[in-house]
Amino acid sequence: MHATHRLDTVFAALADPTRRAILARLASGEASVTELAEPFAMSQPAISKHLKVLERAGLVSRGRDAQRRPRRLEPKRLREATKWLERYRRLWEGNYQRLDALLEQLKAKDPTPGDRQ
Amino acid sequence: MTTAGTLRLTTPGERELVMTRSFDAPRQLVFDAHTKPALVRRWLLGPPGWSMPVCEIDLRVGGKYRYVWHHDRDGTKMGMGGVYREIKMPERIVNTEKFDEAWYPGEALGTLVLVERAARPRSRIPCATSRARRATP
């Protein structure tokens, strides 16, 4: 999958609060669909649907135990998403630091506070 | 510089990025810095090594803007532009945005919001900007 498309899938998967809660639960250890459904007022099929989205995004995988089929968190994709956001944030922080310096110069030229008409 | 702050980046929706940051300057100056080409090209540059030889802004609803960046060492060019959809001076701009070599389908919609905070004693009026980007497939 192309890197950009993969990130799209990850961010789309993360946009849902139930799916984020599932990831938070899996962060403390693997769990079966039944266990994952418990804390939510949701049917197992509904949880399975969310899990499918998370699996497609590569955020969750299935464990070995064929009977329980536990799901577990795949942190690699999450790290990629965080890295992308951090790069974006750094780029804009660089821009805004230059803007700070420019605003200081403009203020020195025009010390009137507030909106000019 | 006490009121200029760190950039906050959030992703409230599936296709939305919101950046929030404060500046230690009157709102009108921050607005000017986003809309006057001579000022925009001095800070909207991205990573080190890039300059902005083209910066054209026709600031009216339906008016276009065009930015082209140039990498000073390897000569790479990167262009983008769009159309202004909403302008409320000096507090709000909504514009479409699309890169020449877009890596995504459709175009993005950018919203710039400038909010003036109450002045505190012995400090100038700080201004917070919030910039939202929403992809429209």
Largest sheet of chain A: 2 strands, antiparallel
Per the principal axes of the C-alpha atoms, what is the gross shape of chain A?
elongated
CATH architecture of chain B, by name, is: 2-Layer Sandwich
Largest interface here, residues on each chain?
A-B, 29 and 37 residues
Proportion in β-strands of chain A: 5-15%
Strand content of chain B: over 45%
Q: What is the distance, rounded to the nearest whole angstrom, between the alpha carbons of the first and last residues of chain A?
A: 53 Å
How many individual β-strands of chain A?
2
Return the CATH topology of chain B: Alpha-D-Glucose-1,6-Bisphosphate, Chain A, domain 4
Order of the strands making up the biggest sheet of chain A: 1-2
Based on helices, strands and strand pairing, what is the structural class of chain B? Answer: mainly beta
Specify Rg of chain A, calculated over alpha carbons: 22 Å
CATH class of chain B: Alpha Beta
CATH fold group of chain A: Arc Repressor Mutant, subunit A
The CATH fourth-level homologous superfamily of chain A? Winged helix-like DNA-binding domain superfamily/Winged helix DNA-binding domain
Features:
heterodimer, A: 117 residues, mainly alpha, Arc Repressor Mutant, subunit A, two-stranded antiparallel sheet, 5 helices, elongated, B: 137 residues, mainly beta, Alpha-D-Glucose-1,6-Bisphosphate, Chain A, domain 4, 8-stranded antiparallel sheet, 9% helix, 51% strand
